[in-house]
Amino acid sequence: MKTPPLLLTLAAALTLSATAPAGAQPADRPKVAITILLKPDASIFVDGQRATVNQLDAALAVGATRHAVVMYFRDSTLQHPSAAVENAANAIIDKVINHHMPMCFSADAAFKACKKVGK
């Protein structure tokens, strides 16, 4: 079975960005983030690419090995979500919890507030 392009891209990015210099302490390692955007039609985007829940789960598995932080944003939060959006949001949060990853809930799709955390 071929590895989906999303996973190849994410795995390569995480490998490059999480490589610490020789002798570096854990606090010196670059911070790695995975962005998740949930649209009003219940479509999920992981690091800007549309993804299924299974692809999200695989990306989170890779991210968890790199101690990634999840940055999450649900578009149109002022509206009551449809059942499909609620199901997708629950699936996303369940996957993040299952991988024991820290998560930042963003107020904007640019993840500005989440990017300030830890600086």
Task: Write up what this structure looks like.
Helices cover 39% and strands 18% of the residues. With 119 residues, the protein is α/β, with parallel strands linked by helices. The protein has one domain (30-116). The protein is globular, with a radius of gyration of 15 Å.
What best-fitting shape do the alpha-carbon axes yield? globular
Termini separation: 40 Å
Main sheet strand line-up: 3-2-1-4-5
Largest sheet: 5 strands, mixed
Helicity, as a percent range: 25-40%
* Element-by-element helix/strand order: HEEEHEHEH
Give me the secondary-structure category: alpha/beta
Cα Rg:
15 Å
Give the tally of β-strands: 5
H/I helix tally = 4
DSSP strand content: 15-25%
What's the domain count? Answer: 1
Averaged pLDDT: 79
Low-confidence regions: 1-25
Please render the helix and strand layout as text.
Layout: H1 5-17, E1 33-38, E2 44-46, E3 49-51, H2 53-65, E4 69-74, H3 83-98, E5 103-105, H4 112-116
Parallel strand pairs: 1-4, 4-5
Antiparallel strand pairs: 1-2, 2-3
Helix pairs in contact: 1-2, 2-3
